[in-house]
């Protein structure tokens, strides 16, 4: 039986998408590589950066492994933090978000099951033009195709509640 070996994960591995000035999504393992069972996406978050508005996946479960820094989570009504080596499950059909709870860059690995959602990040990367507000309509269309509900109106409350930095998205008018 042949076993496929993967090389080391580094800064040049996988497909990298940049969102605004700081947050990234790097696809390390995709659907084709894992037989569509799962994907692995690495996110880098700047100090006090919110990863996304409140959102809910209808097709995937996500498992977050914190590799550097402290990450805050909101799952339903539960708020908590996790540090390096800790694993957090974000089940499908549950509202959630996460952010860098510290004052230096943080890094997480997202294990997404089943695979396929990693393509969402590649698709929405085009909706974050350099120095301009994101294309919310494009994001809403992509979200619908991927079975993702996004509550863009949650941004101001999340920023204030968790003392996060104000993202560029706050300067645009979200849909809804």
Structure report:
With about 180 residues, this protein is of the alpha+beta class. It has a single domain, classed as Jelly Rolls (Sandwich), CATH 2.60.120. Helix content is about 15%, strand content about 35%. It contains 4 helices and 11 strands. The strands form 3 sheets. It has a 6-stranded antiparallel beta sheet with strand order 1-2-3-10-5-8. It is globular. The chain starts with 14 loop residues before the first strand and ends in a 15-residue tail after the last helix.
List the helices and strands and how they pair.
Blueprint: E1 15-19, E2 23-29, H1 31-34, E3 39-45, E4 54-57, E5 61-68, E6 71-75, E7 78-82, E8 87-90, E9 96-100, E10 106-113, H2 118-124, H3 136-145, E11 148-151, H4 155-161
Antiparallel strand pairs: 1-2, 2-3, 3-10, 4-11, 5-8, 5-10, 6-7, 6-9
